[in-house]
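Good morning C.,

I know you're traveling, so I'll keep this short. The sequence:
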Amino acid sequence: MASDKEAVTPYNSEQTKKTQVASMFNKIARKYDFLNHLLSLGIDRMWRSKTVQMIAATHPDALLDIATGTGDLAFTAAKKMPHTRITGVDISEGMLEIAVEKAGKLGLNQQVAFRYGDSENLDFDRDSFDAIMVAFGVRNFENLDKGLEEMFRVLKPGGSVFILEFSKPRIFPLKTLFNAYFKYVLPRIGRFTSKDHKAYTYLFESVQAFPDFEKFVSFMEKAGFHSNKFYPMTFGICTIYTGKK
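The tokens, ready to paste straight into the viewer:
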């Protein structure tokens, strides 16, 4: 993964994966929230809530949300932890624009700040945050090793990282049903609704290529994190990974 040997990109293009991912999210930004909740049958809210519950137990003062998208995880965290300062970063300006709009409507723009940011080259000093969270973002990193190393760098000693990401169920017949839904049903709905069918074809392909469960934990260990654990959610459709610096 460090060399991205099995690189899965949204488009058949000579552009880097990072550029393609930013372009893809800019295209679907206005439909992103609607499709997320529709295609997951609303379960994504439960996954985020569980992640935030785990983060809240560590009582962070400064929290970084990488690949924040339209800010759903950041806002869930803000409501649960009203005294925590939250910074959300993303490479898609279209997604960030919506996140800022939502922050204003929710009255959270004093607690949650959004800024453009590259997960593999974070514009923060070493040891800046008490906790870091990522929801459905690490799978899109161009270089997974570099992204995790950057998280480790900006996390304070003793701080914790929380990563929510899709994984591949191992139980039959759920594994077969999951693959069929992601490969055939989801892209059709996405194409009809967002007009960018490649975005949702990419979702299936990127989940299949992602090193989940124990394999991902090995990447966390390589980056320097310790006490790493993973918690499969909804029969392994997605997983919460935790680690400490």
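Safe travels,
E.
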